[in-house]
Structures are given as C-alpha cells and as structure tokens.
Amino acid sequence: MLNLPKFKAAAVQAAPIFLDTEATVNFVCQIIHEAANKGASLIAFPEVFVAGYPYWNWIMNPVQGSAWFEKLCKSAIEIPGPEIQKIAQAAARHRINVVIGVNERNPKGVATLYNTLVTISDEGIILGRHRKLVPTWAEKLTWAYGDASSLKVHDTSIGPLGVLACGENTNTLARFSLLSQGELVHVASYISLPVAPPDYDMAEAIRLRAAAHSFEGKVFTIVSCSTISAGIIKAMAESHPEAEELLSRRKSAFTGVIGPDGRVIGNPLIDDEGIVYADIDLNRCIQPRQMHDITGHYNRFDIFDLQVNRRPGNAIRFTDTPQEQDDLNIGMEPVQGKQP
User: Fold this and answer.
1) Is 47 a catalytic residue?
2) What is the model's pLDDT at position 330?
3) Concatenated DSSP letters for 150-196?
4) I need a labelling partner for 319 at 20 to 30 A (CA). Which of 246, 287, 307, 313 fits?
C-alpha cells in the first residue's frame, strides 16, 4: 500500500560570514544542530551560502570587482573536500537531509567557479552536486555554466528530492525535467538581491516562482533565501561608497514553504533572519493530480518531446585512457561518527 512520507522541513534565511569559509561552515553546522533538535528531517540553505554572493558584480564595473573575484576564488571549495565533508558529518550526526549552496572551484581550474547546490542524505552521503545551468545576468562575470549531468531527483528518507538555484526556478524545461523524474519535494535556493530594477519586487518574485512550480507539479517547494548582513555591506563599501544605499532595499528576500496547491504554509520570512519550519505530508500531492498531472495523463507526449543531454561538460576528453569515474562518487560512503 502506498504511504508517502510525512516530515518537518526547515528553511534558513540568513547571511553567511562573508568569504570566510571556515566560519561559515561552522555556522552551518550550528544551524543544522538547531533545526534537527526541533525535529526537522530536511534543512535547506540559501544559494552560495558557503561563503558568499558576488554582489560586486552588480554595484561595480568588472575592473573594480576583479580583486573581489580573486577573494571569492580563494574562499571557494572543492567537492568532495573537507568543508563539505564536515557538513555531511553534521547531517549524519543529526539524521537530517541537507541542501546547501556553495561556490565550487573546479579542481583543474583555479579560477573556474560554479554556483553549486549540494544534496546530502541523512546518512551523510553526498547524493548530488548540481551546478547552476545558466548564471543570471551579472553573475556571468563570476560563474561558469553547469551541465545537466546533475539534473536529477534523489531518493531520500523524506521522498523524491530535486533542487534548483535561484533563476533556474524560472526555467520551465529545467523544472519539468525534475517533475518528470518523480519529484515531490523541491528545494529552491536564492540570494537577496536589492539591486534589481526599482519596480521589481524580489520577495514577491521568489514566492511567485515557488508557487508556480508547486501548483503546476503538485509538489512541495521549500524556499531558502539569504540576507545581506552589515558585514557584507561594510565589505562592499570598501570599494564602492554607495554600497549601503544599493544593498539595503527592503522586500528583497523571501523564505517559506509552498504546498501542492500553490499556497504558502505557515508564516514565511521577508527580509528578516531566522528559520521557517513546516510540517509536510506528501500524500497531499496525490489528489490534485487527478485533475492536472503534467508528467502523466494531463499531457500529450506524442506531440511534445523533451530531450535532456546529461553528458558531463568537460574541457577535454582523452582517448588513450578509460574515462575516469565521476569524482563525486569515488569513495563516497556514509561518514563515520553517526549517532542514533
């Protein structure tokens, strides 16, 4: 008999310790401990939470921001690596699934960075590393394009879980590719962006995108968005005198949980820091699909044909040696030190 999981989800709205990787990882572990103690089985962190977003791309010209790009490269992490392993150990210790955004450095390219979401099971296993497919607007000055090799839904203790970063949640085909794999829980990670056009309500745009995905796919969406701390503003003000004014606009961050009817569950956070909790029953995803199941009976796959290229995008392919195994999967066993 089908009986889908019920669980408590936690969504974080906070700022990292800007470009301080070790301090931010320690902060992440503290938040994991707090959420697990309150009964959460899934915790979602914001986009590139380890350890910061390139706000200089929006308020400085490329030459002015170049020195900050170097700082970001030096604070970025490799996957697998000791920083993500520490977070995985915390996930295992507290028996909680974790989705977290990081700046990932290509191990074979010191200045090639990716906007990456890492999915970690409650056993401390790295299930996926999704690199943002298309950096948005000014972000192209910082991040390389990802590929679809990681555009996958993962089987977890809290159900089929998929993730997308920020503007990817506007990409209908990316979202459909996850829904078609049976996604029931979607994590959408964002950053606060006060420097959007003046008539653009960032908080409402985030909520609207989450509601669209939940309503169309009949899934739960957990939204986690960062905030901009006084420390971030102070750092940016070192290079730009108008940083405080440009980065202080309200209604720039939304964090919350959306049900399969497209409605917000409980009380979301707008701008303020904190953790949103919500009780989720995946059985609520069933009845709405009797009316509209866009990956099943309510579609015409004899008319529409979506193809997804999942081949990894590599700089070079050598033909004299066997293709190496994906480095993400090498030796990734459950971490040690788990506690019941």
Assistant:
1) yes
2) 39
3) G---EEETTEEEEEEEGGGGG-HHHHHHHHTTT--EEEEEE---TTS
4) 307
Task: Please give the Cα distance from 183 to 70 (Å, whole number).
Answer: 37
* Predicted confidence (pLDDT) per residue in 208-242, tens digit: 999 999 999 999 999 999 999 999 999 999 999 99
CATH code at position 265: 3.60.110.10
pLDDT at 327: 53
Q: What local confidence, expressed as pLDDT, does residue 41 receive?
A: 98
Does residue 321 lie in a domain region?
no
Is residue 57, in this structure, part of any structural domain at all? Answer: yes
Q: Determine the Cα–Cα distance for residues 295 and 225; give it in Å rounded to an integer.
A: 28
Rounded distance between C-alpha atoms, residue 14 and residue 271, angstroms: 9
Residue type, 203: A
Tally of domains in the chain: 1
- pLDDT the model gives residue 323: 54
Q: How far is CA 310 from the centre of its chain?
A: 19
DSSP 8-state symbol, 325 = P
Nearest-angstrom CA–CA distance, 121 and 112 = 27
Low-confidence ranges of the chain (pLDDT < 50): 329-340
Q: Which of 22, 34, 47, 123 is catalytic?
A: 47
Cα-flanking dihedrals φ and ψ of residue 180, to 5°? -70, -15
Residue 335 lies in a domain: no
Asked if the structure places residue 85 within a domain, the reply is yes
pTM score over 0.90: yes
Domain range for residue 62?
6-291
First to last CA, the chain: 28
Q: Are 44 and 31 spatial neighbours (Cβ–Cβ below 8 Å)?
A: no
Nearest CA to 27 out of 82, 90, 70, 85 is that of 90
Provide the β-strand partners of residue 190: 225
Residue in this structure with the two tokens 């990681």, named with its chain if needed: 150
Per-residue pLDDT, 320: 83
Task: Please tell me what DSSP assigns to residue 44.
Answer: E
Measured between alpha carbons, how far is 272 from 121 in angstroms, rounded to an integer?
28
Q: CA-CA distances (angstroms) from residue 295 to 85, 110, 134, 178, 179?
A: 35, 40, 24, 10, 7
